[in-house]
Amino acid sequence: MKKVKYNETSIDQLPNDKPVLYRIETETGNLNYTGIAKRGRVHDRIKEHLGKIPGTNVNIEQFSSINDARNKEKNVIKRNQPKYNEQDK
After folding, report:
1. What whole-number distance in Å separates Cα of residue 72 and Cα of residue 18?
2. What does the domain layout of the chain look like in residue ranges?
3. Is the domain covering 2-80 a CATH 3.40.1440.10 domain?
4. pLDDT per residue over 3-58, tens digit each?
5. What is the pairing mode between strands 20-25 and 57-62?
6. CA nearest 1: which of 61, 58, 87, 57?
């Protein structure tokens, strides 16, 4: 797991070499959104949410496959019911 500020400069510092599950969190640690990104698309995918989904921090968890990340995403959404996620609730 790696946690950085939810801004363009910090997002660019995240590893981009494996699929990830990312979580956009508020200042108090509430989960606003969770998603997945394929290897090589981590920065671009998270930046797509800037200005659309509010948050203070973004956490990522790396996986060996996109399917592993997708399975974890479904579990996180069901368990936490993030405000901005619509699928898998």
Report:
1. 15
2. 2-80
3. yes
4. 999 999 999 999 999 999 999 999 999 999 999 999 999 999 999 999 999 999 99
5. antiparallel
6. 61
b/e code 51-69 from CB counts within 10 Å (16+ = b): eebebebbbbbbbeeeeeb
Task: Write out the two tokens for 2.
Answer: 């790696």
Number of other CB atoms surrounding residue 43 within 10 Å: 16
H-state helical runs in the chain: 8-11, 42-47, 66-80
Strand ranges (E), 1-89: 2-5, 20-25, 31-37, 57-62
The whole-model pTM stands at 0.94
